[in-house]
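pasting for the record
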Amino acid sequence: MWKRIKNFLINLLFPKYCLGCQREGDYLCEDCQATLEISSIHQKADLEELSDLYFAADYQKPLIQNVIQQFKYEPFIKELAKSLSSLIIEHFQLLDNKPDFTDFILIPAPLAKRRQRWRGFNQAEEISLNLAEFWKIPLLNGALFKIKNTLPQVELSDEERKENIKGAFICKSPEKIKGKKILLVDDVFTTGSTMTECARILKVSGAREIIGIVVARG
């Protein structure tokens, strides 16, 4: 009961406004979410270190880009994790040939400790929590660690991104990875530098198969 009262007071003092239409009530209202073009098809991706990649939407679409940026950058709207996760779930529900992930585990792309303290959460982990609940599969946190404080990827060219992220990750528990089939989760796939490097480390640690899952592809 106290939680409901607390949430009521927060919503009263700090009302939510839709990032699409500015209507009060939620950060992404049902009407605006319905306008998003969620992909209903999947073409197997041929990517370095990844056996496949699934994405729900096109990052170039203004509303998708705005929602993800409000999630990742100030004011850091953590609640958007649920809306973004629902886009991924909708994508899989729309597919004619739905994949079976029952024998997979979820691993979120990690953040450096300094950046996670700044943001207050790891956006890939928040999305992964919702996907783990939906698919009823394990979420393995702490398998990957980011040990290098890299420059923000958005500011760099393709080649600079690859160099920036090289050697940034380690796996501290390879015994938990060996022989596993992994869904590697992040928010956006642009050049793929971050996800490729994460997947490379997981492969070195003995992962059997790695599939990438993101909200949007740039």
